Structure formats: C-alpha cells, structure tokens
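Fill in residues.
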C-alpha cells in the first residue's frame, strides 16, 4: 500500500522533496497530490513549472535538487510514484476503500490546515486528508507558518483531537547541522518518524554533550 503525500502552497518545497526521496529510498510506494497553490510556490522556490502532462519530468527535476537549489544533487527513481491531479475528486484516494498506509501533508499551509480541520474537502488534497482521518489512518501535518494566530492554533488542536500528528516545520540545531540540507532533512526525518517510516536522514540524540550529529548512525 502507498503513502499519500500531499504538497500544499506553504513555503517549504524542499521539505516535501526530502520526504519523497526518503520514502522512495525506503522502498515505499507513493501517491502524490500537488495542490494548485503549491505549484506557484514551487515555481518561486525552484523555478520549476509542475505540469500534469509532464509530471514525471518535472518531479524528477524537483527531487534532484538539493535545498540550495543546485540541480543534479540527488538521483531518484520514480518507479514507485503515482500522481493524482488535485482537482480530480473522483481519484482513488478520495475514497476510504482505496488502500493506503496514511497521508503526509508537507508542507501544510494554514489554509490547508483550516480546510482539513473544518472538513471542507475543496480539492483532492483536503478530501484525502478527511478520508485518512475517518478511516483512522496515520495523518501527519507538517505545518509551515510563523507566527501562528489563535484561529490556526485552534485548527491544529482540532486536528490533534481527530488523531492527526502535527509536526511543525521547525529544524533543530543540536544535531550539528553544517548545511541547509541538514536542517531540511531533520524536519523531513521528524515527519517520517511520526509516520513510523525508517530513514537515515539525521542522527538521533544519544544524551549528554555531543549527543547529536548530522546523520543517523547506520
């Protein structure tokens, strides 16, 4: 069964790329939903135009880039990816009978958070999140915004009450990051931790001075 990855319009497309690379690297199947707003963010942050008719080429170019925007940093096999148009409310993930392990929304904008918390289902991303909650599957919401107002905080509490894991896109520095990719990978790793997916994106805290580093011990 696949993990469904939803990419909303918040800043932070490198987080989504890191999560997708790690899932595919772990041999996981991925169903991908890219919102309309996220395409604008992706264009702004990477210069890549994500097109339905050429999604494989555009996704490959996106995932090949490091957090610094340099092309060709990573080599990714897209054989495990299935893509769904965000406007297709008749797509497989819109139904609870569609088999899936769960859903990761990374990054999650406050508009996306509100839509899921209120059950609006205005596009496939929100609808799939609602289905994930009602089916009691794993839902991880990597919210990326600051500061957070009271309304958004209430929406996040509602998601937590509904069984979702709220993972703010807040990188930690105890792991001794020396590159922007290290900070991105830490957040991506915490998203995968919440989903129970094994990865080697960062070294875990071992306790005491010098308990962290930039990569997990193998």
């Amino acid at each position: 069964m696949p993990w469904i990855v939803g990419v909303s319009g918040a800043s932070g497309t490198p987080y989504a790329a890191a999560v997708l690379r790690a899932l595919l690297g772990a041999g996981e199947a991925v169903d991908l939903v890219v919102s309309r707003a996220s395409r604008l963010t992706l264009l702004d942050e990477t210069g890549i135009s994500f097109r339905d008719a050429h999604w494989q080429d555009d996704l490959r170019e996106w995932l090949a880039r490091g957090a610094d925007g340099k092309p060709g940093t990573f080599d990714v096999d897209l054989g495990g990816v299935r893509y769904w148009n965000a406007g297709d409310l008749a797509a497989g993930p819109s139904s609870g009978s569609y088999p899936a392990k769960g859903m990761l929304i990374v990054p999650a904008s406050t508009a996306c958070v509100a839509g899921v918390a209120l059950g609006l289902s205005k596009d496939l991303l929100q609808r799939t999140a609602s289905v994930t909650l009602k089916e009691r599957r794993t839902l991880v919401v990597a919210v990326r915004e600051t500061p957070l107002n009271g309304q958004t905080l209430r929406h996040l509490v509602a998601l937590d009450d509904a069984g979702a894991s709220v993972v703010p896109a807040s990188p930690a520095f105890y792991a001794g990051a020396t590159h922007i990719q290290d900070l991105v990978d830490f957040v991506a790793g915490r998203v995968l931790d919440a989903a129970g997916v094994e990865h080697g994106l960062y070294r875990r805290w071992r306790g005491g001075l010098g308990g962290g580093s930039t990569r997990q011990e193998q």
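Helices lie at 13-25, 36-46, 55-64, 110-118, 124-134, 150-161, 180-195.
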